[in-house]
Amino acid sequence: MKKRDGFTRAFAVFAASLAFSAPASAAFIAIDDSNLNTITINAGQFESGFWVNGNLLTSGYGTGSITLIDGTPITISGNWIDLNVTGAGTTIAMLFAPSSGTSYTSGMLLNAATHSYNHGSLSGTIEGYDPSVNFATTYPTVLQDGHMETSSLPYMSISFVSEATPVPEPATMLLFGTGIAGLAAAGRRKRN
Fold first, then answer.
1. HSE-up (13 A, CA, CB side) for residue 50
2. Chain segment 144-185, per-residue pLDDT in tens
3. Are 119 and 79 in contact (CB under 8 A)?
4. Contact 103, 135 (CB under 8 A)
5. Cα separation of 7 and 14, whole Å?
6. Residues 50, 56, 57, 63: is their CA dihedral positive or negative?
């Protein structure tokens, strides 16, 4: 009887040490598009893998980072432990525009669902800022002013830092204004 009690206690201590040996953590995606030429994606804690443009970036409890050229569509997908609570057909939209409306110049659209026992999956597209392209959308947009947007799914956090919409520097504005004034003066002289 004493042997069994000793075994039971030893097993309980072993199980407790396993429970407390690895701290609980959640999956994350952090997108930084604050640079005018590049976009950086950081991700971690995707137990079954996280892919960028079809290439594995990280898997398990590790983290990974990749910096890509801005202005080209980037596809991402990943699988993480969500304890079966994400549900089906969940959409995350973080869309940035110089002004609000029905188009955006950068952002992300992700679709997520629980796809198998205790695992969620997500896939979607990230767009880095391209001033020459406006993508049509029916989702709400936010001002593209360099702030961070955040969202979450069960056991996952998502953040996206947008570029600030480029504003001409004062010297450029002065030169532009002088040119306009010169054209107006030339037009007046021509009429006289």
1. 24
2. 899 999 999 999 999 999 998 655 555 545 554 555 555 455
3. yes
4. yes
5. 10
6. positive
Cα distance between residue 100 and residue 137, in whole Å: 11
* Residue where the block lists tokens 């002004």: 99
- Among 73, 67, 81, 71, smallest CA distance to 53 is for 73
CA distance 126 to 161: 12
Do 84 and 97 meet the contact criterion of CB atoms below 8 Å apart? no
Distances in Å between the Cα of 186 and the Cα atoms of 49, 176, 189, 192 are 65, 15, 5, 10
Say what the pTM is.
0.73
- Asked whether the beta carbons of 39 and 71 are under 8 A apart, the reply is no
